[in-house]
From TrEMBL:
Similarity annotation: Belongs to the nitroreductase family.
Domain Nitroreductase: 8-78, 81-149
Organismal lineage: Bacteria, Bacillati, Actinomycetota, Actinomycetes, Kitasatosporales
The protein's name: Nitroreductase family protein
Keyword set, alphabetical order: Oxidoreductase
InterPro entries named in the record: Nitroreductase, Nitroreductase-like
Oxidoreductase listed as a keyword: yes
Native species: Kitasatospora paranensis
Top-rank taxon, per record: Bacteria
Length: 184
């Protein structure tokens, strides 16, 4: 199997992290990876806040019930709504939210490829995180990517490995039977 498919299949959300710090080079590589994610309109309407200060990380945890791990670093993915408006996206356009997902998925895979443990968190108080990070009024935090060194003993995955078979999640055309393997 090629390396990309292998990385996609072996990435897991890692919630058991050691107390060790992570090195700057790998954190930079994870931050750099986000700009390679596909973005709506090919615009970069997001801002990333890298949190490495231990006191600030502890404070983030206190306002984030979904942050089960104790991360050594966290990347807070924010949407800059002033940029979104100036680009001309109407409020109903889901692009900025979808971009949060593409950027997060890209960073999670990058972290995994570098041997880091990583996990997304969306269960947190947006208002409290914005205050803690002193964000401008139009910049709203939407997702936190937690990062650290994976602990040697990991709990079993929440669901069975791989999830449901892909065939059960896919419909072909207007409900047709799947075409036979080979050229289509
Ligand atoms: C949009 C989104 C929000 C999530 N929020 C949280 C969260 O707040 N806390 C958490 O521990 N995991 C969170 N997760 C991680 C999922 O629970 C995780 O992907 C799922 O358990 C499957 O784990 P796996 O990716 O290791 O297969 C989130 C995932 C996504 C995509």
């Amino acid at each position: 199997m090629n390396a990309v498919l292998q990385a996609i299949r072996t990435r897991r959300v890692v919630r058991a992290l050691t107390a060790e710090p992570i090195d700057r080079e790998r954190l930079d590589a994870v931050l750099d990876s986000a700009r390679f994610a596909p973005h709506a309109g090919n615009r970069r309407l997001h801002r990333y806040v890298a949190v490495v200060d231990p006191a600030l990380l502890r404070a983030l945890r206190m306002v984030s019930p979904g942050m089960l791990q104790h991360p050594a670093a966290a990347v807070v993915v924010c949407v800059d709504w002033a940029e979104v408006r100036s680009y001309g996206f109407p409020p109903s356009n889901p692009g900025p939210y979808i971009d949060v997902g593409t950027a997060a998925a890209t960073m999670l895979l990058a972290a995994h490829s570098l041997g880091l443990g990583a996990g997304p968190v969306t269960s947190f108080s947006r208002a409290a995180v914005a205050t803690l990070l002193d964000l401008p009024p139009d910049v709203r935090p939407e997702l936190i990517v937690c990062l650290g060194r994976p602990a040697p003993d990991q709990p079993p995955p929440v669901r069975r490995r791989g999830g449901p078979r892909w065939e059960t999640l896919v419909r072909w055309n207007r409900g047709d039977a799947a075409p036979p393997p080979g050229r289509m």
